[in-house]
Amino acid sequence: MSLSIRNQIAGTVTAVTAGEAMATVKVRLEGGQDITAAITADAVKELGIAEGSAVKALVKATEVALATAAVDGISIRNQLAGTVSDVATGGAMASVKVDVNGGGLTAAITKDAVEALGLATGSSVVALIKSTEISLATA
Counting beta carbons within 10 angstroms of the beta carbon of residue 46, is it exposed (0 to 12), middle (13 to 18) or buried (19 or more)? Predict the structure, then answer.
């Protein structure tokens, strides 16, 4: 199956905490960084997700925010350190590619945000992704 979601990062499940309706799934990315996905308990069961499972974390570019440093005092659990590898700006929006250990991410943010943050190739950034915005795919 082909997907329009460009952000697809491989990893291995390190923990599953199931609740009545939702579950949190911790994934160690190939580069060593950890992320958490919040998915339905039914999806965990139907996909056979368990500790040790190989998965791909899927995130739409519009769900990736960027900061110039780690952010304290925020509910967003996923903060992936990386380096900007490309910035393509249009009239209002920009596409920012970020190399993170274990893969690459694309963030769709405003041109104004790129300018305000001073983002350019080589800039250090932190990609912020809510756990509810990460989907998981199995092989």
Answer: exposed
